[in-house]
Amino acid sequence: MPDAVVLLSGGLDSYTAAAIARADGYRLFALTIRYGQRHAREIDAARAVAAELGVARHVELDTDLSVFGGSSLTTDEPVPKDRPLDRAGVPSEIPSTYVPARNTVFLALSLAWAESLGSHDIFIGVNALDYSGYPDCRPEFIEAFERLATLATAQGVGGAPFHIHAPLQHLTKAEIIRKGLQLGLDYGLTHSCYDPDAVGRPCGRCDSCALRAAGFAEAGIADPLRLR
Question: Does pTM top 0.90 for this prediction?
Answer without folding.
Answer: yes
